[in-house]
Amino acid sequence: AKTHYHDFVVQATKVKRLCKTHNTITVNGQYPGPTLEINNGDSLVVNVVNRARYNVTIHWHGVRQMRTGWADGPEFVTQCPIRPGGSYTYRFTIDGQEGTLWWHAHSSWLRATVYGALIIHPKEGSSYPFAKPKRETPILLGEWWDANPIDVVREATRTGGAPNVSDAYTINGQPGDLYNCSSKDTVIIPIDSGETNLVRVINAALNQELFFSIANHRFTVVGADASYLKPFTTSVIMLGPGQTTDVLISGNQPPARYYMAARAYQSAQGAPFDNTTTTAILEYKSAPCPAKGISARPVMPSLPAFNDTATATAFTQSFRSPQKVAVPTEIDESLFFTVGLGLNNCPRNFRARRCQGPNGTRFTASMNNMSFVLPSNYSILQAYKQGIPSLYTTDFPANPPVQFDYTGNVSRSLWQPIPGTKVYKLKYGSRVQLVLQGTSIQTAENHPIHIHGYDFHIIAEGFGNFNPKTDSAKFNLINPPMRNTVGVPVNGWAVIRFVADNPGAWLMHCHLDVHIAWGLAMVFLVEDGVGELQSILPPPADYPLC
Ligand code: C2O
Predict the structure, then answer these.
(1) Residues 364-399, buried b or exposed e (16+ Cβ, 10 A)?
(2) Where in this chain does the record put each Plastocyanin-like domain (predicted)?
(3) Cα(183) to centroid of ligand 1, in Å?
(4) Are 197 and 454 in contact (CB under 8 A)?
(5) Ligand 1: centre distance to CA 296 (Å)
(6) Which residues' Cβ are closer than 6 Å to ligand 1?
């Protein structure tokens, strides 16, 4: 196993998109940031230097961080932010994960431009569970704002309304042919006739689930979130923010240029969204050059309608692990968390411009009616491990405090989220089942729920209210997929299981970033096990304090 050393300089960089030049926060001047490639079993040492004017942290999305929670990255959960002028070196080992993950800033909305791919090849001396691909290509789907993304979220939290939708989607940082001033920078992905290539698709968008497709080419899906899948074929994939999907494509079409494209899957009815389409070009190396003056527009894939929940659902429900997996069958902790939006009344003394949600309210979001508030002067992990004074409490509820018809019409009086910094304690080694139940308060939508420090088995998903009696018959305890981010279906539920085998403070949140700002988050505090082996390692010497 090797150790890979990298320097990440977070800095403002001039970036030209959609006809304008912006002062964009990047890593090493690159947008998207550098791709890290390693083998399963290797270690990473990444020295992050902050030369920007914002606080920053870097999160290694999906990396389990066994015993190295200090390197996980979410600000005020596992560390205090790296202040302007400061630095911090993240050190961790990849142990058992293979496939595609990514890294991103975990501080306000910096991740809009501060992100990159983290590619984990098979362990040295071992190989893929499929024929070795000729080429491998990361495809990072992103969202671009003409405004500074930090200002967009600040404005939303100040007014209580929804943030402005993005101005473009991007593939590897470029909007592509269909946007103004973007044609000549359209990304070109090469392929040769007869070869099979591995395409690693990452949804790095802030707030939007996306469909992705390539004209005339089918995908064989082989992995997601750095776990292998039992292969299946499809012409379109859907990813929530945070999710990755590995697909094989074959160069079996007439040599030419073909568009690959992504656009919104929008499960929330009536909510505004960016309805544009980003494209890149899949180009056969032997394709004839387009003759001068003849328009050589590539073929466009047909993407599902923006509200095609049936296609999105059919896709994710095709996921299976390749083999039988060890799903816990006995459960020590049976949890039921609602996930959804809400509205809070505008306090009387608020000026109206601060309450621009529906009918003069403020948007909020919650799990089990608790709207998570990040600490601002300590990190939860450090407070827990080193007993420093803190204000978090351990009374996050295991069940919703009020029972109601979660997917029906609910009166708002039943459900006004309470702000607080509450964590749920899990005993080291306990076997956890968590039902995530979407609610229809304000807007029902698909919420991509991500847990830090863990992969989990998704043993069932469905629509309506979860019914423990009838729905447990649907549990797949044989070969359910493993993921780190589950899309809880709109007006529906998902059931996940995992063993709490990684001590630390682990954020769970909706990966639609504006929902974090509104409170759709909580923290699992997994207690240290007995004995040296199960215990979290001591913090590094340069660990940022508040
Ligand atoms: Cu991809 Cu909490 O993050």
Answers:
(1) bbbbbbbbbebbeebbbbbbbbeeeeeebeeebbee
(2) 10-124, 136-286, 395-528
(3) 32
(4) no
(5) 40
(6) 59, 61, 74, 104, 106, 242, 450, 452, 507, 509, 511
The residue among 439, 306, 309, 422 whose CA lies nearest residue 364 is: 439
Closest ligand 1 atom to Cα of 452: 2
ipTM of the complex: 0.99
242 Cα–ligand 1 center, Å: 7
- d(CA 464, CA 325) in angstroms, rounded, equals 28
Domain boundaries, the chain: 1-129, 130-321, 333-526
- Average pLDDT value for the chain: 94
Residue nearest to atom 3 of ligand 1 (CA): 61
Model pLDDT for residues 20-29, shown as the tens digit of each residue: 999 999 999 9
Query: Under CATH, to which class is 130-321 assigned?
Result: mainly beta
Atom of ligand 1 nearest to the CA of 61: 1
Judge whether 50 and 57 are in contact, CB under 8 Å: no
Q: Measured in angstroms, how far is the CA atom of residue 225 from the centroid of ligand 1?
A: 12
pLDDT per position as a tens digit, 48-96: 999 999 999 999 999 999 999 999 999 999 999 999 999 999 999 999 9
CA of 274 to the centre of ligand 1 (A): 22
Residue 457 belongs to what H/E stretch? strand 456-463
Contact 160, 355 (CB under 8 A): yes
Report the separation in Å between the CA atom of 507 and the middle of ligand 1, taken as the mean of its atom positions: 8
* Atom of ligand 1 lying closest to residue 111 CA: 1
Task: Indicate whether 318 pLDDT > 70.
Answer: yes
Which residue in the block uniquely carries the two structure tokens 């090469």?
A: 190
Instruction: Judge whether 23 and 113 are in contact, CB under 8 Å.
Output: no
Second CATH level (architecture) for the domain 333-526: Sandwich (2.60)
Q: Which superfamily, per CATH, for 1-129?
A: Cupredoxins -  blue copper proteins (2.60.40.420)
Q: Which atom of ligand 1 is nearest to the CA of 104?
A: 1
